[in-house]
Design goal:
Blueprint (H helix, E strand, L loop, with lengths): L3 E6 L3 E6 L8 H12 L2 H13 L10 H5 L4 E7 L2 E7 L6 E2 L2 E2 L1 H20 L11 H14 L10 E5 L6 H16 L3 E4 L8 H12 L7 E5 L1 H4 L10 E4 L3 H11 L2 E4 L4 H14 L11 E5 L4 H14 L2 H4 L3 E4 L2 H22 L13 H4 L6 H5 L9 H20 L1 H10 L2 E3 L3 H16 L13 E3 L2
Parallel strand pairs: 7-8, 7-11, 8-9, 9-10, 11-12, 12-13, 14-15
Antiparallel strand pairs: 1-2, 2-4, 3-4, 5-6
Helix pairs in contact: 2-4, 5-9, 6-7, 6-13, 10-16, 11-18, 16-17
């Protein structure tokens, strides 16, 4: 955990002096960071910082915090010993008795650290080749290493996917599963937000306390387009901001030793399709990767519909890569324990590292950033007869576009100006997609509050 010293300034202003990664930057690197934060990076830095400072917010509207705190600003100042972060008109909820909350300060440091690394190492003058699959995988590794996520230790990291807008019963179930995982010594990695991303971490904290575990990891992986709508939950103690959704997804599958999927919406469907598309490739078929879909009894119909959609689009082989367990937290934890033991044995036999899954082959079509425009969404090839992994890549992009239309500002503006995205494909596939999306809307999985206005139109 990063050690952060702070000094409060009047009226919710603050100066933060981070100790750790930013202190070892050279003067030239600090100058580049300062130039970047004063230029095109400044608004991105401001939005991400505001999301962290409003951690715990119940809103999933990316514009809400900016409207509530229009005068908030953040600046990175150069000093001989590193950098200083100045906050102006920061939200009062980030302070106690005039002092910034320690955990909030640590997450704020993570924001600056990751945006600095991306600007310096992955920018135009950076050394990474982002045009090749190997180059992108190395870039993801570099980001995670810089964030001090990669720890040589026995495999014990369970990635939990699921929606930010879930029912109370579903949320309590995610806590129960997290508790069972924590009792068995597992750390938790999620998308860092509320709902199914918070529940497993909350359950695990109790179990870790009962087991007297001195070091625990609650990793939150996010990206700039998502963080404003899904502020980090307060339990996250390792926050990483990846440059885009594709690198975020790759980070999940590279560092996770097993994945649990709780009920969710389009973002969760995107994650499932991403992983299945990779696991269906010939070169990955023998690599063990436990994948369990789980929820309480009230979620049984949800998983039946997901299962039906996957079998229709990707086939029975895709369905064979996961198990569905309903209403049994202990059984879920036992299956994950057995699955991760197989992962450990396989990596020992194949001399693959425990902390980063180098052996998994991720093709370029799953790594290259997809910018959802009206033209790009309409041109997705959603037809039968394609190789399953390639169809999964385009299905993933379709769901990614809907996520963007729901919570990412650039896509929301496009839809306001030009109307909803159109999605085309084979009739039976489009009917199944439309039915799945309608179910998400009816179950209020698209939005926490207010009436949902679809950002898409499925052409059947």
């Amino acid at each position: 955990m990063t050690d952060v010293a702070t000094r409060a300034l009047p009226v919710q202003d603050a100066r933060i002096f981070p100790h750790g990664g930013l202190d070892v930057l050279s003067r030239a690197e600090v100058a580049r960071l300062r130039d970047a934060s004063a230029g095109g990076l400044h608004e991105l830095l401001r939005r991400c910082a505001l999301a962290v400072l409003t951690s715990g917010s119940a809103s999933d509207d990316p514009r809400a915090a900016q409207e509530l705190y229009p005068d908030f600003d953040i600046n990175v100042q150069q000093q001989d010993r590193g950098v200083r972060i100045d906050l102006k008109n920061a939200p009062a909820m980030a302070f106690v008795e005039g002092e910034i909350i320690r955990g909030v300060a640590e997450l704020l440091f993570a924001v600056v650290r990751d945006l600095a690394y991306t600007a310096i190492e992955l920018g135009p003058d950076g050394g990474d080749d982002l045009g090749t699959s190997e180059g992108i995988t190395n870039a993801v590794f570099g980001l995670l290493r810089n964030a001090r996520i990669l720890k040589p230790a026995d495999p014990n990291l369970v990635v939990c996917w699921g929606g930010h807008s879930i029912s109370r019963d579903e949320y309590l179930y995610t806590k129960q599963v997290g508790y069972e995982l924590g009792l068995r010594g597992f750390d938790i990695c999620t998308g860092c937000g509320p709902g199914a991303m918070k529940g497993p971490m909350k359950g695990a904290t109790i179990a870790h306390a009962k087991q007297r575990r001195p070091v625990t990891r609650y990793i939150g992986l996010t990206e700039p387009g998502i963080i404003a709508a899904e502020s980090p939950n307060p339990i996250v103690n390792h926050l990483v901001i990846m440059p885009d959704i594709e690198k975020r997804l790759e980070a999940f599958v590279r560092i996770g030793h097993g994945i649990l999927v709780f009920p969710g919406g389009v973002g969760t469907a995107e994650e499932i399709l991403y992983l299945l598309g990779i696991l269906l490739r010939e070169e990955n078929r023998d690599i063990p990767f436990p994948l369990v879909l789980t929820g309480p009894a009230v979620s049984a119909a949800y998983f039946e519909q997901i299962d039906t959609f996957i079998k229709l689009t990707l086939g029975e082989e895709a369905a064979s890569r996961y198990e569905i367990v309903i209403g049994e937290p202990v059984e879920v934890a036992k299956k994950m324990t057995a699955g991760i033991k197989k992962v450990r044995d396989w990596r020992v036999a194949h001399k693959d590292s425990f902390f980063y899954n180098w052996a998994l082959q991720i093709p370029l079509e799953f790594q290259q950033p997809f910018k959802p425009t009206h033209e790009a969404m309409a041109q997705l090839d959603l037809h039968h007869g394609r190789v399953a992994s390639e169809l999964a890549a385009d299905l993933r992009r379709a769901f990614s576009g809907i996520v963007a239309g729901n919570v990412k500002e650039f896509a929301m503006r496009e839809i306001e100006q030009r109307g909803p995205f159109e999605i085309h494909g084979d009739a039976d596939m489009m009917q199944a997609l439309d039915a799945l999306l309608r179910a998400f809307v009816q179950q209020r999985r698209m939005k926490i509050a207010g009436e949902y206005q679809p950002c898409y139109r499925v052409v059947t």
